[in-house]
Design brief:
Layout lengths: L9 H17 L5 E5 L18 E6 L2 H5 L6 E4 L13 E7 L8 H11 E12 L4 H8 L2 H11 L23 H10 L3 E7 L9 H16 L8 E7 L3
Parallel strand pairs: 1-2, 1-4, 2-3, 4-5
Antiparallel strand pairs: 5-7, 6-7
Length: 239
């Protein structure tokens, strides 16, 4: 079985995401940036934040989550799927990490992010994608049952560690012409979707693990992005 090249794996996506955000930030002149859904765990510490940033804001719809965040950043408590009119055209960069699957309406989410961006601004999202088996399972199982399964296999998935939130996976898919067209219908001038393959959810289940690895390898080598596991989504608002 021919292995998937490292740069197309989920491990690579997780390892390089912060570097990708940094490159994006450094391409802007004194940008105002916001991380949506950052909660208690923003991407950057004070020593990691690029020096050219004018202002770094972290957002969450839960004030409790923001209260648990480090105190050095500006916070903004609002629902990204709600009314964001007061923040229209305010940010040069909007980025998210494992948030998009939790919003109930993906089209409204991406439309509101578009509103937050200044002309010429860029949105960058790191998302899990359907129809990767663990995410299909998470979508169809009752939340109470899927939460129990996650906590049983991952010790850090607790209210005090990394909480599990309900997932909807609205507009969370691998690259396709149809999905790109939906982004463009919102108003984005450019939409780039980079699909990654593999995940770590079945590592403790030997038979399922090997079956899933075979499926993942097949999907990559056949170019089946709809069986990918994660994606970087980069969207540019017209200048």
């Amino acid at each position: 079985m021919v292995k998937i090249p490292t740069e197309h794996t989920s491990h690579y996506a997780w390892r390089t995401y912060k570097d990708e955000v940094i490159k994006l930030i450094l391409s802007k002149d004194r940008p105002d940036i916001i991380e949506i859904g950052a909660g208690r765990s923003p991407l950057f510490t004070a020593v990691e934040l690029p020096e050219n940033v004018s202002c770094y804001t972290i957002n969450d719809l839960s004030q409790r989550e923001l209260d648990l965040a480090p105190g050095e950043w500006r916070t903004a408590c609002f629902d990204i799927c709600g009314d964001v009119e007061r923040l229209r055209s305010r940010y040069d960069v909007v980025f998210t990490r494992m948030l998009a699957e939790h919003v109930p309406d993906g089209y409204r989410f991406h439309s509101n992010v578009f509103s937050l961006l200044k002309p010429g601004g860029t949105a960058f999202h790191f998302i899990p994608t359907l129809y990767s088996p663990p995410f299909v399972i998470n979508k169809i199982l009752p939340e109470r049952l899927s939460g129990w399964i996650v906590r049983a296999f991952f010790e850090n998935r607790t209210e005090e560690g990394i909480p599990k939130f309900p997932a909807h996976y609205s507009m969370c898919y691998g690259k396709s012409a149809r999905l790109i067209e939906r982004y463009r219908s919102i108003g984005y001038a450019d939409a780039d979707i980079r699909t990654f393959y593999g995940h770590g959810y079945f590592l403790k289940i030997p038979v399922l693990r090997e079956l899933d690895r075979a499926l993942t390898n097949f999907a990559y080598h056949r170019g089946l992005t709809w069986l990918g596991s994660y994606a970087y989504v980069k969207l540019v608002k017209p200048g």
